[in-house]
Queue: 3 jobs
Job 1
Amino acid sequence: MKKIFNLLLSENGYIHFITITLFYTLISYISNEYVLTENVMYNSFYGQIPEQFIEQTIEFQKKWTWVAYVIHPLILLLKWSFITAFVAMGSVFMSYSIGFRQTFKSIMSCEWLFILFGIVNLMVLLMSDVNSIVDIEQLNVVNTLSVGYLFKTYLDIEGIAKPLYSLNLLQVFYILLMPFSIGVISNKNYLYDLSLVLRTYAPALFIWIILITYITVSYA
């Protein structure tokens, strides 16, 4: 695993960022073209709103889909910067001699885990009989392995279910993967790097979920 991250971290940072962005763009494009089709949109809203509004919604989605492609790279940069800031601050207290830029590249390299799950999820949707947005949510591989899914399915709690989708098995894999990437630049053992991740990323994720839960419940 460390060899893989050695290879990823040796790449030019800008090329690495562009490659990740292109993968996400391709996944989104295929999803919009072949999963979230007009029929799926129509079936999702039929009987809930007038048909003319459904058509307007579909046209609006077609017209402004490009905005998501443009904004997503910015969201990725903000996400990586947020995580890097927490890890970098924690590394100071744990006597690490790693810089912000090195840490940022190691965090960016871990994004391939989310891309891998995104590809798997896309394949599942393409091979399934998807008729509505509800079907897409139920077939989402990551969502079905989350605390939010348990709240919604077994406890029938809708209000705070969505923010808790962030507490999923993928996040566990992510936490276990990050020490391999950080270890390339820290030259410390896995358990010590895992301790850094648990003391920095885990609290950051918890704060984020609490914030989103508060906003969801307050403005639902």
Note: Residues 51-93 form the longest helix (43 residues).
Job 2
Amino acid sequence: MKNIQLEVARLIDNNIAVRRLLKEDLVNVRALARKFLDDYKLDCSIEAVISAIRRYDASSREKDYLPMIYKLLKNAKLSTRMKLSSMLLRKNQFVREKLPKLFSMVDFEGGDTLRIFEVSKHIKIIIDEKLLASIKKIFREADIVSIENDLSELDILYDADITKTPGLFATLSNELAANSISIVDSMICYNEHIVIVLDKDTQKTFNVLFALLHRS
């Protein structure tokens, strides 16, 4: 069985709304404990969860990094791009050698999009849908694992380096998850956070992030 104190602390750490309400003493602890039990199937009694919530030291955790998160979010700028496609490729020498060709096909100054995500066994590229047919011809069919259309990108631009701020990604991803929005891909680089979602979730995602940025 998981350590309930640690598990409850993790759940609270990942929920900016709950942390704020705990700090302001606006939470019905029993109701919150029941929600944790129901949503996360915790293997313990409701009394154990209530005890863990009450022992959670919200004030000491808040002073560690939450003020930094609030400040970063408050000063951030949000923009969107739609009609994107993704291509998941096998990571091998042939694919690596073909990647440089992409840059000559993308008009960055004209606003075209190119994102490249690399993990241990795959490389994913995010491009404008209009470029998909041409770029697909560069690679062998055997190296194309999957193609996904109807994607959107939300770009959050901060006024400082965010890579040294714990909890920022968790704050955003938890807010999206709470609103039933799935993240297709995400990347953080210095002062920029890119989130890829389905086109159908674009407006909802924008509204959720916009509200989060403006209430921080």
Note: The first helix runs from residue 4 to 13.
Job 3
Amino acid sequence: YNKLSLVDIINQDKIMQSEFQEQHDAIEARDAAELIDGCIDSLFTTLGMLQKLEGLKVNVNAAMKQVAMDNLDKFPKTEQEAIDTVAFYANKNVECYYLYMKEFDCYVVKDMNGKVRMPYNFKPTDLTKYVTPELLAALEVKDVQ
């Protein structure tokens, strides 16, 4: 990549959104083959965005590793933490339940739609250390938001 611009990033985002829409449309149409195609195309267009970020000197591998490691913190280690998390969401009118995952020796808290819910004490991932001057310049911003 020579010099990537905001236009390049916006265009890649539009391509990604189009593929995610195709995936959604395939689900709505109950079209299994198109769902597979849309899902794979969504992955490839997302990888294309990651390539663009790498071209802007972002250490994508390190950022992905940090996100993966931080995501492990989304699983309560103790039953009490799981119970407290269910109570935390109940106070927000979100019905949840927890399960013990023996193979991973941890708990998972899910809402009634099956979405994994973060523990009440979860700390979000901070990726600001991966923001490069090249990325800021491409996004036409002066400082990390």
Note: The helical segments are 6-29, 32-55, 60-71, 79-90, 133-139.
